[in-house]
Design a protein that fits this description.
The protein has 327 residues and is of the alpha/beta class. The chain contains nine helices and 15 strands. It is globular and about 60 Å long. Bound molecules: NADPH dihydro-nicotinamide-adenine-dinucleotide phosphate.
């Protein structure tokens, strides 16, 4: 038996709770992992509270991220005792996820724990940090360098945004952070932002072309914000789009594309092939340290997950939540 969060949906309604589970209940898979740490992402919050249609089959153990030690393996490249990391692949949505002491998974989904990181550190980073690095790499692939000018990060006080600000700064970029939480301005400055703007400047319908302000951007917000970011990019600028915090729509004009040659680069972390994951995590491991991770994250136990998920949905949680599934 082991402990885990279980989401159920039946005639009694939608509910989630911490339960004792039987290993025999675990889904099919060729690798059994003893989970050390998981995280609580926005997507996990949606799954646990039922506020978004994240869970595709019930009952479900949520948790899109996990790090732990392999207990059993029928997968050739993975052996018992290996430290492994998982992000995405529909885990916690259609396959039981990381918010439990054990997980049975497909070996194709696992990558080795990046060198230099502990299980706990990798979960302080989680999908948020890994996605922020994928976005940075997308800008680099489009030729963006610090010499080109200022880079904007929208949704800067979210998990992806915090890491995007920190990574860009550590890579030598000048970063402007857009946020709705001015009370967190000092935290953003500590992460490296040199200027901070109110997200209200970007979230309403705007002009097809605006003043050229940014060489590049990482956008966590979508909707009018992304449209305004496109309109304000410098000639041949690039925006990496990775989120939809304001909305899934994109009410934009082609003007910045055909008159300024800008690039809109999409970022997906969920189905990313292993070589991209390994490269992104290698880059992340080289940039982070304990001081950065502890300024962005805090730890909770499994029995605090349900209450914290509700606070997350109410926008009352800043930064990253690490879940120690063994306490
Ligand atoms: P968080 O909830 O931690 O942060 C989202 C941030 O967006 C908030 O902190 C806030 O920033 C801003 N925001 C929220 N609501 C609005 C709004 N109505 N208008 C404008 N800004 C808003 O989420 P994450 O950082 O974990 O994820 C960011 C986005 O990226 C999410 O949409 C998430 O679904 C997506 N995502 C996508 C991935 C991919 O593979 N493409 C992977 C991971 C996440 P502030 O407080 O600074 O204003």
């Amino acid at each position: 038996m082991f402990n885990g969060i279980l989401i159920e949906k039946d005639e009694r309604g939608y509910r989630a709770g911490c339960q004792s589970l039987d290993e025999a209940q675990l889904p099919a898979g060729n690798v059994l992992v003893r989970v050390a740490y998981s995280t609580l992402n926005y997507k996990d919050g949606l799954a646990i509270t039922g506020k978004g249609p994240v869970v595709r089959s019930f009952p479900m153990v949520p948790g899109i991220d996990l790090a732990g030690i392999v207990e059993q393996s029928d997968y050739p490249a993975i052996k018992p005792g290996d430290s492994v990391l998982l992000n995405g692949w529909g885990v916690g949505e259609k396959h039981w996820g990381g918010l439990a002491q054990k997980a049975r998974l497909n070996g194709d989904w696992l990558i080795p724990l990046p060198e230099g990181l502990t299980h706990r550190q990798s979960m302080a980073i989680g999908t948020a940090g890994y996605t922020a690095m994928l976005a940075v790499i997308a800008l680099e692939k489009n030729g963006v360098t610090p010499a080109h000018g200022k880079v904007l990060v929208t949704g800067a006080n979210g998990g992806v945004g915090n890491f995007a600000v920190a990574f860009l700064t550590r890579l030598g970029f000048q970063v402007e952070a857009s946020t709705g939480r001015q009370e967190e301005a000092e935290h953003l400055r500590q992460l490296g932002a040199t200027s901070i703007i109110d997200r209200g400047l970007l979230d309403a319908p705007g002009r097809p072309l605006a003043k050229e302000q940014w060489a590049a951007a990482i956008d966590c917000v979508g909707s009018h914000t992304l449209a305004n970011v496109c309109a304000g990019l410098q000639y041949q600028g690039t925006v990496a789009a990775c989120g939809l915090a304001q909305g899934m729509d994109l009410p934009a004009s082609v003007a910045p594309f055909i008159l300024r040659g800008i690039t809109l680069a999409g970022v997906d972390s969920v189905m990313r092939p292993p070589r991209d994951r390994i490269e992104a995590w290698r880059r992340v491991a080289a940039l982070v340290d304990d001081e950065l991770l502890s300024s962005i994250s805090r730890e909770i136990g499994l029995d605090e997950v349900i209450a914290t998920a509700a606070r997350l949905m109410d926008g009352k949680v800043r930064g990253r939540i690490i879940v120690d599934v063994n306490r």
